[in-house]
Structure prediction request, 466 residues.
Amino acid sequence: MKKKTAIYAGTALFAACALLALGYAGGQYFAPGHASASASAASDNLDGAPAAGQRRVLYWHDPMMPAQHFDKPGKSPFMDMQLVPVYADEAGNDGVRIDSGLQQNLGIRYATVRRAAVAPGFDVVGTTQFDESQADVVQSRVTGYIDRLYANAPMQRVSRGAPVAALFVPDWLAPQEEYLALVRSGMSGALLDASRARMRALSIPDTLIASLERTGQAQTHVVLSAPRTGVVTELNVRNGAMVSPGQTLAKVAGLSKLWLVVEIPEAMALRVHPGMKVDATLAADETQHIDARVREILPGINPGTRTLQARLELDNAGERLTPGMLVRAHLSDAKAVSQLLVPSEGVIATGKRSVVIVRQADGALMPVTVTTGIDVGANTVVLQGLTQGQEIVASGQFLIDSEASLKSVLPKLSNASDATATPSERAASGASSDASSDASSDASSGASAMSAMPGRDGAQASGGRQ
Prediction:
């Protein structure tokens, strides 16, 4: 019995050793063959002679570091991921190609570069104010007391000639009684003329002197009236208050004309000049347009808001405007200039430059650096980089921008820009390289997500570690 058990144990141990040896031999046989086949295929691709039905690989790269190219597949030395192949039939110097079905899924829209007459200008905001040139004051020329106040509160409307305040002037009584005494005594005209001159020197109005001669009764009250139709913007006295010569009792401002004072950003300060055409709309009713022109530029920059003020004169004959209203205004030159326009949403502002995605004749999408001008509504003026009739991407361009970064189109574009830049521009560009690296990383992250979407041929290559 013990002999049979030993035989069975020996047989089992021999079978286990045989299976282990067979597995090791198979691994040694097939693994080198597979690696050599992969290397051979990669070599064929790099030499420009791929096998039938295979796509030619230009190089491999890490999507997070698209500018670094590798001549064979493997694991990225930068990230814990496999290198991604870039095929010859994909975008290189000719742009990025995206499947039409994927474009539809992403909701990519296109717009045509068009030319239109644009009056150079910019948008500003401002407020309506009283026209100080149409403001008058009501003053007292004598010492007296407010006997009655007709204007009870500021911002009260008054008409021209309407009473504002009634003054009691006790100092007027003595010269008037003296004049009446001369009249009663039958004095000559020279003494009467001297008495009248004395009353005028005491600021007694001629109307009150005429009433004294006609009625023979002294007047110690005078009514001060409004010099124009408008509103009382200032009221500095109350009933019973004592007033002195030269004291301002009230200020009356007209409403037939108003000032519009607009705030101009310091960056636009040199572009504004008197005579510029202004198209203003009210915040209360944007359907109403007001046409005006810049009357004068007020000197000095506001240190708090860093803005320059410009003053406009508005006709307010119907008094539909009131001071303090918020107004949006577009300042422009009178002469329009033909300019290229693209939708503002289609322009990618990177901080160093502005980029648009152009759709080429073969359907490829190519990032193009442009020089932009002013904004005209929902459009932006393009000064350089585009021609009339070209198609650009109006929506979804950020995903295409990320894909372009993945394919190293934007790095090449950046290198081309640096090659043509002046030494000072290259120095300024180097100062912001850290910010550009962060933006490139964000774009590459979006590209990786886009590559994982269905409908793409960007399958990752597998291979040994480089």
